[in-house]
Amino acid sequence: MRLAGTETDLDLELSLKPVIQELVRTQVCFPNLKLLVDRIATVTLPEVDELSGNEAYKLTLSDGEKTIQALLKRRIYKTIYSEDIREGSFVILKVYHLAQGKKVNGKGTITSV
């Protein structure tokens, strides 16, 4: 996932469109997807190798109606450290991949970007 500059202006807020339901249904990645950062959490992942570490940032993103999870790649962690991305800010996703997995409770699936 690659992020464009984060925005907090009213113009971006007004242009937020409900697209997550269609994104999940069609599995088509829309260009320049604008979403609101609802929540930022640190999660522990299985280690791939000794250098990669096992912590990652998980964002809960909203289109105003639905939410979706995003797992950040290590190379864009600096946007979290520098507070360019924070809860309540808007992001524009330029490049991202959809993935589905089983829910923790084992009932159904979950989609993330």
List the helices and strands and how they pair.
Elements: E1 2-3, H1 10-14, H2 20-26, E2 33-44, E3 55-62, E4 67-71, H3 78-81, E5 90-95, E6 99-102, E7 109-112
Antiparallel strand pairs: 1-5, 2-3, 2-5, 3-4, 6-7
Overall residue-averaged pLDDT value: 76
Strand content: 35-45%
Rg value: 14 Å
Provide the structure class.
mainly beta
Q: What is the H-and-E element order? A: EHHEEEHEEE
Number of separate strands: 7
Arrangement of strands in the largest sheet:
1-5-2-3-4
Classify the helix fraction into a percent range.
10-25%
How many helices? The count is: 3
State the separation between the terminal residues, measured CA to CA: 7 Å
How would you describe the overall organization of this protein?
Helices cover 14% and strands 36% of the residues. It is mostly beta strands. Strands 1-5-2-3-4 form a 5-stranded antiparallel β-sheet, with no helix packed on it. It has a two-stranded antiparallel sheet with strand order 6-7.
Provide a concise account of the structure shown.
By secondary structure, the chain is mostly beta strands. The chain is built from 3 helices and 7 strands.
List keywords for this structure.
single chain; 113 residues; mainly beta; 5-stranded antiparallel β-sheet; two-stranded antiparallel ribbon; 3 helices; 7 strands
